[in-house]
Amino acid sequence: MAAKLLRDTGKEHVVQVSYLEESMKLVRFQEAFEKDLGERFVGLSVNETIGKLIRLGNMKRSVKVQTEFKVGEKAYAWVRLRALVAKRDWRELEELSKGRKGAIAWEHYYNEILGAGSPKIASLFIPKCTTLTVAERVEMWVKCGMISKAGEEALKGKDRKTLEELREKADGQSALDIDRMIKQLGRR
Fold it and tell me: At what angle do helices 14-37 and 59-68 cross, to 10 degrees?
């Protein structure tokens, strides 16, 4: 009704009419989700709606909202990442790590997942962080508690100093691996 009244007043209210129609469409979607899923949606933003749908395991509906409301790939990727991390859906995040290219940089996946307390899953994204320096990737491996992997990264970068620093942090098998890498670098 309000949209019709504004539309009838002339062209100067085109933007307001558009916003009002989008808002009404969102509320209709949210009411349908509330009816179907028994969860509260009305009053959420488009991104919050998408995130809640993902947390509830409704990926198809989240994609439908993304499409209907023209949510960009990067924004959707951020919402999806944060929703999956909040849900602690490590299996789905592990599947994402197998993808070729993400809409957002892989280090964001690493940071969000590590921040949620899953270094094993976070580590799956380190090899994809190809735009980072060797030192940055070494640090990522160390934060995941994977000293041997950090050593392999330093070895690839032929960084003896970093290997020696890692040797001081290593124990057990990791220490033996780092020693082997230092010797290997010495032979080159």
Answer: 170
pLDDT band, very low/low/confident/very high, at 14 (cuts 50, 70, 90): low
pLDDT at 11 over 80: no
Helices first, then strands: H and E counts in the chain: 12, 0
Single-letter residue type at 125: F
pLDDT at 7 over 90: no
Contact at 8 Å (CB) between 103 and 79? Answer: no
Q: Quick check: 102 and 77 in contact, CB under 8 A?
A: yes
The residue behind tokens 């290593």 is 170
Tokens read off for 137? 């990737």
Q: Which amino acid is at 72?
A: G
What letter would DSSP give residue 71?
-
- The DSSP 8-state label assigned to residue 69 in this structure reads T
> Taking a C-beta distance cutoff of 8 angstroms, is the pair 20, 2 a contact?
yes
Cα 131 to Cα 85, 128, 134, 135: the distances in Å are 24, 9, 9, 12
Helix (H) or strand (E) holding 8: helix 2-9
Calculate helix-pair angle for 46-55, 14-37, nearest 10 degrees: 20
